[in-house]
Write a structure and sequence with these properties.
heterotrimer; A mainly alpha (about 500); B mainly alpha (about 100); C mainly alpha (about 650); A: about 500 residues; about 5% strand; B: mainly alpha; Helix Hairpins; 3 helices; elongated
């Protein structure tokens, strides 16, 4: 059995086991052991991948393919390169920490069922190399979100769940058009990404309308301006672990898809039409940051900051050079980790103070030192402190983007750089407001600090953030070599 | 012998009177009666066509008999429903029976 | 010289140790571990300095750049990669000595000064982090490593300014410091991007090497909006330096940064971090002089203006730490001016040498001033001059050491400040008369406000001190660092600096120009001191009268020329209210409104066609009958 299929199989098994669980204890056991198994698998995969790549120069490793709908050439085809491995590692970390962040859920069994289904979708997406299978897993990841937010959320949860699902479904519609366009445009003989990329050619006339559809379809999930408004509402209403998973992993599906499908299969159109999206993403970056400055809800701040950071991912992908693209993938990793940490901590704070309004909090550093220190670390990672992951990712993007030969692109890069100042403003504003200063609300005095399971979640993420920040060449090398095929493809034009 | 057209004119009239009643009446019993008219018009047609066009065979007659039996059963069920509806909401007006929709 | 790596590793390990396990230690244990560790790093630095300057640094009369440690940290492209390493050359070795010495003194001093504070361990771990970052900054082998440590320095400064995090003013000050310097760093970053794009390297050695002038000059032909690309890049990099070194108009964070504990101000906001900008310009000096000399002129003028501006403000401040803060700004501006007026090579590079010299001497006497001020604050529990007076008889050691530092900063021979300031004035005299006279005037102002401070604190009228808490001399742990720094302040001036540091690493001879520079500057300084003596020694009413006669100008000066208010207006009213709020509104109402509008339209459309699906079978039959009749009619008649 292919190791990659295990990533789908393990969550499915978890679902089956959950059905027979009776007590909370059993549910937790299943979830923790399953999530740990996924982590171990991810690490094993990384090691195996590195060994395998040393001896092989295939584009994708561990490939296998089983036809399951021959008349449309749809196959369950899997395979990974360095980028997917990085994404799988990220997902496994976040799934793992997410379990600990949802330790005390109501209706835990149902919650975790959907949670596992979501994981199936996420892992399935990253291992697939078949367009339709990829799309299918993408949908599998989206649907549970509706229930998870609608049932376990807070605030205007029905509204937000509906909005999020509908907007993302709208994106999916574009995506489906795009995928069919690619399939028929390339001569309806294969749905396999590698096959299409290497052996088939899509005429430029078709690319011209398929590329925007595909990019937009994935872009909605990557919070592309002006289709980002699901993100603040959705994240604000979602339960902690769902926010973590959504901002941490699901938004990366968008970036990954743009990169793997839109750019990879349609390089000509990317060159021709990329500038439109480049402007949109440039707007996302600055606009998201500016919007975050005036928000008063912690989750809104973080959601807008995600818009800004994810905008940077798409921005860098569109720069179409190796360094910038490496930076884009690193930014996905980094943003996934730190935003998950943010949401975990916001959930923790909200669970105790029952407010997310920064005006109603103050002096939490005194009350919950552990959580507050973690929050500061998350903030520093977000504003790009060297030694934490945000810095390496952003710098790779900026340096890479600035190498573009075109002055227009360089000026856009400078504009995007401005976001680092604005990021500092909103991060420090939040930190100063809620953690420092005198205690704002006397009810907050004596609230307990993080409990052990919350500590596991926070520490796990911080370790990952620091590791990536201190030893960036690990991630950089993993990604960089796998970029060759797409860079070559883009360079031919 | 009476011409076939006369039978058909009668059955057509019955049929459209039935359709009109089905559309226009509010009372469920009246609708049921209209339905009976429609069905009977059809049965007349069966019998007439059999008698005039295929005198040698009896299929149309049998079909008519079969139809009468079905109609009787159907009427019985319909009346039972109507009575139950009347018991529940105190009316047999179709416009008022919209509980299930809400 | 691989052991120089331990100068960096030691504070980093201390930071991790104290940061992660500090809360389980006793306060004293944490403090002593930190201090001993720093002492170790300082000893290593002195060893490195000795070896470099006297044993192995010089080959054929020229100091060589040495890179004992270097490894690739992150690769961007074939040519561009961030290396982390240690670069030893005269200025970095000098900085190692300065940083570790001052840091050690501050560590020692804080043992007593911060004793019993909540978060003592945290304080020491941040001090170690700061020392690590600052040391990493000065030994950077490439501009990106410098940027990395530059940011780290900013963060450690942020955490130390906001050390008393329950105090809103401290939180605001730390935020302001970080954001203002971050804004400047944006310039730095863009400058790095431009520079690296055109030269294809981050490496200092390649950028500044003589034989590689072509690397830099290759940029000169290109221009953007009337200025050469090189000038843009270097001006932007200077913007980063100006932010950290508090040059006008980015200086506003420094006075507020005095909210931090006083030893922190001594270490970070007087002696080390704030000179990082000067160090940056010095590091890239060959690039400036060959590729963008016009930027150097700009630097000189900004420096001169800042020096004058800050000195004027310093005269009217009443918070002793703020006086020192403005004096720091003014003194750093001296160093900037000196770089701005410098040439390259031999005696032309006098300004470069003078700048580094002043950096060196200033670090010690300014740290001494701050620590002395800390000792005073410790005794009277106030920062305000009006609560002090006649402290000389209570705290003689603090008073004498403070006097030494004041004489040094005022430029009275034979104290160290005289020598370095004199070289700066010499360099300015040969370059630009206007700058020379400005700086000379500032020298007088400096002498005046420093002695105003000194007389107000230690002489003047005795204040009504609480009889239970009479001010008393600080404990030995605090006075010993004062005495050591006083010794440095007296003697460092006698080091023959051109022997060690010069723009092209070749020693040259410099001598004091008594007639044109030294005597005028001494006269000016003495005048300042005498005026201060007359006005403040006995505590007369004259200062108030003079202030009244100056009217609006005086008020403006007290309010620091309203620059804080201008910045506040820009950030609060313009950026926050006119950019962020409208964008957020736009997002919520227009963009999101459009999305919600789409949903609303769908809903309304569905509601309007919903009537057709009434569930009324009669209606369906009606439609069916009409429809079939119509179709029949069509079939018949068409």
């Amino acid at each position: 059995m292919n190791i990659l299929s295990l990533f789908v199989l393990v969550p499915v098994l978890m679902i089956l086991f959950l059905f027979v669980c009776k007590s909370m204890q059993q549910i937790r056991t299943v979830m923790v052991s399953g999530a740990s198994a996924l982590m171990i698998l991810a690490v094993t995969l990384t090691v195996m991948f590195l060994q395998e790549r040393a001896v092989s120069n295939a584009e994708m490793l561990f490939t296998s393919s089983t036809m399951w709908y021959p008349s449309l050439n749809i196959a369950y085809a899997v395979g990974v390169d360095g980028i997917s491995v990085a994404m799988i590692v990220l997902s496994s970390i976040i799934v793992f920490t997410g379990v600990f962040s949802s330790w005390n859920m109501n209706m835990a069994k149902e919650y975790f069922l959907w949670y596992c289904l979501l994981s199936v979708g996420v892992f399935g997406f990253f291992i697939s190399v078949d367009l339709f299978t990829m799309f299918m897993f993408y949908e599998v990841a989206l649907i549970p979100m509706y229930l998870l937010i609608g049932l376990w959320g807070t605030g205007r949860k029905e509204y937000s769940a509906m909005k999020l699902t509908l907007m993302l479904m709208g994106g999916s519609a574009f995506l489906l058009i795009g995928i069919l366009g690619i399939y028929y445009g390339s001569g309806h003989s294969s749905m396999n990404l590698l096959e299409i990329a290497n052996n088939l050619h899509i005429p430029i006339e078709i690319q011209r309308w398929v590329f925007p559809a595909t990019f937009l379809g994935f872009g909605v999930l990557g919070a592309l301006f002006p289709f980002h408004t699901w993100s603040p509402d959705g994240h604000a209403s979602a339960p902690t672990a769902v926010s973590m998973l959504h901002a941490g992993v699901l938004m990366k599906l968008g970036g990954y898809g743009c990169f793997r499908v839109a750019m990879y299969l349609m390089p000509e159109a990317a060159h021709e039409l990329g500038w439109i999206f480049l402007i949109l993403t440039g707007i996302s970056v600055v606009y998201g940051a500016f919007s975050a400055v005036v928000q008063t809800d912690l989750k809104y701040i973080n959601a807008y900051s995600s818009v800004s950071h994810c905008g940077l991912v798409l921005f860098a992908i569109l720069m179409m050079n190796r360094t910038a693209m490496t930076g884009a993938i690193m930014q996905m990793l980094s943003h996934g980790l730190m935003t998950a940490l943010f949401f975990a901590l916001i959930g923790l704070i909200y669970g105790r103070t029952h407010t997310r309004d920064i005006r109603e909090m103050g002096g939490l550093m005194k009350i919950m030192p552990f959580a507050s220190v973690c929050y500061v670390i998350a903030g520093l990672a977000s504003l790009g402190l060297p030694g934490l992951s945000g810095f390496v990712a952003e710098m790779t993007i900026f340096v890479g983007s600035f190498q573009h030969a075109d002055v227009f692109h360089r000026i856009l890069t400078i504009a995007a750089c401005c976001s680092i100042v604005i990021t500092a403003v909103y991060i420090l504003r939040t930190v100063g407001k809620i953690l420092y200063g005198p205690v704002q609300d006397s009810h907050h005095i004596g609230l307990p600090d993080a409990s052990w399971y919350e500590k596991v979640s926070a520490v796990g993420l911080i370790v990952a953030i620091t590791f990536m920040g201190m030893y960036p060449s690990g991630a950089s090398e993993l990604i960089n070599n796998s970029l060759m095929p797409i860079i070559e493809k883009l360079a031919i034009i | 012998m009476i011409k076939m057209e006369y039978y058909l004119i009668v059955s057509t009239l019955m049929f459209f009177i039935g359709v009109y009643g089905f559309i226009a009446r509010k009372n469920m019993l009246a609708i049921l009666i209209s339905l009976e008219l429609i069905l009977n018009a059809v049965e007349i047609n069966f019998a007439v066509f059999n008698r005039y066009l295929f005198p040698g065979s009896m299929e149309g007659m049998f079909f008519t008999l079969f139809g009468i039996a079905i109609t009787a059963a159907e009427t019985a069920i319909a009346i039972a429903i109507i009575i139950n509806v009347y018991r529940n909401i105190g009316s047999v007006n179709v416009r008022k029976i919209n509980k299930m929709k809400e | 010289m691989e052991y120089s790596l331990f100068i960096l590793i030691t504070p980093f390990v201390l930071f991790l140790l104290l940061g992660l396990t500090g809360h389980k230690m006793k306060q004293n244990v944490a403090g002593i571990i930190g201090t001993v560790g720093m002492g170790f790093a300082a000893a290593l630095s002195y060893m490195v300095a000795y070896q470099y300057f006297f044993v192995i640094g010089k080959t054929a009369g020229v100091f060589q750049e040495m890179i004992p440690v270097s490894f690739e940290w992150l690769r961007f492209t074939e040519k561009l990669h961030i290396d982390l390493g240690i670069l030893l050359d005269p200025i970095s070795v000098m900085m190692l000595v300065v940083i570790t010495t001052v840091s050690l003194m501050v560590h020692l001093y804080s043992l007593s000064y911060m004793h019993g504070e909540k978060g003592f361990q945290r304080y020491y771990s941040f001090l170690s982090l700061f020392s690590f970052s600052m040391l990493g900054l000065v030994v950077a082998t490439n501009i990106f490593q410098m940027y990395i440590f530059w940011e780290l320095v900013g963060v450690s400064s942020y955490s130390l300014i906001g050390f008393y995090y329950t105090k809103p003013s401290a939180v605001a000050a730390s935020k302001k410091a970080f954001i203002v310097t971050r804004f400047a760093d944006l310039g730095f970053l863009i400058g790095i991007l431009i520079l690296s794009y055109y030269t294809g390297t981050f490496d200092f050695a390649t950028l500044t090497a003589n034989h590689a002038e072509s690397v830099v000059t290759s940029m000169q032909g290109l221009s953007f909006m009337g200025l050469s690309v090189a000038a843009w890049a270097m001006a932007l990099i200077f913007m980063g330096g100006a932010g950290k070194s508090a040059m006008f108009p980015l200086h506003i964070w420094l006075p507020d940064a005095m909210e931090g504990p006083t030893p922190v101000s001594a270490l970070i906001h007087a002696a080390t971090m704030v000179v990082a900008g000067v160090y940056l310009i010095a590091r890239l000096f060959p690039v400036y002089i060959f590729a963008a000399p016009e930027v150097l002129t700009l630097i000189a003028y900004i420096g001169a203006f800042t020096a004058l501006f800050a000195a004027i403000i310093a005269v009217t401040q009443t918070d002793i730490k703020r006086v020192l803060a403005f004096s720091t700004i003014s003194q750093i501006a001296y160093m900037m001016v000196s770089l701005g007026v410098s040439g390259y090579g031999g005696h032309d590079g006098l300004g470069y040498m003078a700048s580094m010299f002043h950096l060196f001497t200033h670090a010690f006497f300014k740290a001494l001033l701050f620590l002395g001020a800390g000792s005073v604050i410790h005794a009277v529990h106030s920062n305000e001059m009006k609560d002090m007076g006649r402290l000389h008889k209570f705290m003689p050691v603090s008073s004498w050491t403070f006097l030494i530092a004041c004489l040094a900063i005022a430029g009275i021979p034979p104290f160290s400040g005289f020598f370095s300031k004199d070289e700066i004035l010499s360099a300015a005299l040969h370059h630009d008369k206007l700058i020379f006279f400005t700086m000379l005037f500032v020298a007088g102002l400096t002498a005046f406000y420093m002695f105003r401070l000194y007389f107000n604190i230690f002489w003047g009228k005795e204040k009504a001190y609480d009889s239970h808490h009479k001010p008393h001399e600080s404990p030995a742990l605090m006075t010993v660092p004062l005495i050591i720094l006083a010794i440095y302040s007296i003697f460092t001036g006698f080091i023959h600096f051109p022997e060690f540091i010069s723009s092209d690493s070749t020693p040259f001879a410099a001598h004091i120009e008594w007639m044109h520079v030294a005597i005028p500057s001494i006269v000016v300084a003495l005048t300042g001191i005498v005026i201060a003596f007359v006005l403040y020694f006995k505590g007369s009413e004259k200062p108030v009268q003079i202030a009244k006669s100056l009217g609006g100008f005086y008020t403006a000066t007290v309010h620091k020329f309203y620059l804080d208010e201008v910045w506040m207006f820009i950030t609060q009213s313009v950026i926050f209210k006119l950019i962020c709020k409208p964008i957020a509104w736009f997002d919520r109402h227009i963009i999101d409104g459009a999305m919600n509008g789409l949903a609303w339209t769908t809903q309304k459309t569905s509601a309007s066609v919903k009537g057709l699906q009434s569930g009324q079978v009669q209606l369906y039959v009606w439609v069916y009958v009409i429809g079939s009749l119509l179709i029949a009619a069509l079939a018949l008649f068409l």
